[in-house]
Amino acid sequence: MGALDQVIAGPRHLSTPQTSACTLARTWLYYGMKTAISIPDEVYEHAERLARRTKKSRSRLYGDALKEYLARHAPDEVTEAMNRACAEVGESQDPFVSSAAHRILERSE
C-alpha cells in the first residue's frame, strides 16, 4: 500500500473494537491535521462556491484537492497503477489494434 493509498484509506487506529460507532463517526469526519494556509482571495472564493455547490465542507474540499494533486505528482505510483491496469486487461489479440498501436509507436519515436 503506497503512502497515498494510506492517506485515502484513513487511520488504522479507528478500527479498534473499543471504538464506539459514535466516536468513530465523529473522529472520521474530523480526522486529520489542522493547518493554516494562505491562498489568494480569488482562489478562496472559487473554493467556497465549489464547496457549497458540491455540498462538501471546506476541509473536505481542500483535502480532496490535495489528494488529487499528490496523486498527479507521484509518477511512480501512477506508473504502478497503470501497469496493474494493463496486466488486468491483458494484451489485445485484435490484429487491427496491434497494427495501429505499432504505427503510433513508430511515429512517436
Note the main sheet: none
Helix/strand/pairing class, anyone?
A: mainly alpha
Rg from C-alpha positions?
21 Å
Oligomeric composition of the shown chains: single chain
Distance between the termini: 34 Å
Characterize the overall form. elongated
**DSSP summary, beta strand count:** 0
Count, helices: 6
Percent range for β-strand residues: under 5%
Helix content: 55-70%
How many distinct domains? 2
The SSE string, one letter per element, is HHHHHH
Spans with pLDDT under 50 lasting ≥5 residues?
Answer: 5-16, 24-28
The average pLDDT is 76
Question: Could you give a short description of this structure?
Answer:
The chain has 109 residues and is mainly α. The chain has 6 helices and no strands. The chain has 2 domains: 1-32, no CATH class; 37-89, no CATH class.
Task: Itemize the secondary structure elements and their pairings.
Blueprint: H1 3-9, H2 21-30, H3 41-54, H4 58-72, H5 75-89, H6 95-108
Helix pairs in contact: 3-4
Keywords:
single chain; 109 residues; mainly alpha; 2 domains; 0% strand; elongated
Question: What this model shows, in words?
Answer:
With 109 residues, the protein is an all-alpha fold. The chain folds into two domains: 32 residues, no CATH class; 53 residues, no CATH class. The chain is 69% helix and 0% strand. It is built from six helices and no strands. It starts with a helix and ends with a helix. About 16% of the residues have low confidence.
